[in-house]
Design a protein that fits this description.
Elements (H helix, E strand, L loop, with lengths): L1 H11 L6 E5 L3 H9 L3 E6 L8 E5 L2 H4 L4 H4 L12
Antiparallel strand pairs: 1-3, 2-3
């Protein structure tokens, strides 16, 4: 499910770059992003005490997969399934 949501967000992106972040303690999210080809781009301390925030950049190739919305229409953020 997480992979499908990530793919839907990538497909819905209308900007040339897409970033996300997760805490250092969130290993499952880091693994998901790395498997999807996202690249670590930075680290910010001070947002959550003792748990720095890692920032990731989506690979440009993932943003050009326009057919993804047709594959997973009910997983787009902000749209509810009508079935």
């Amino acid at each position: 499910m997480a992979t499908r949501l990530l793919t839907a967000v990538e497909a819905a992106c209308t900007t040339p770059k897409l970033f996300t972040s997760t805490n250092v303690s969130n290993q499952p999210m880091q693994q998901l992003l790395l498997r999807a080809g996202w690249q670590p781009t930075g680290l910010v301390h001070g947002l959550d005490d003792g748990d720095p925030e890692l920032f990731y950049l989506c690979p440009p190739a993932n943003l050009s997969r326009s057919s993804t919305l047709r594959t997973f229409p009910d997983t787009v953020i902000g749209k509810e399934s009508r079935s």
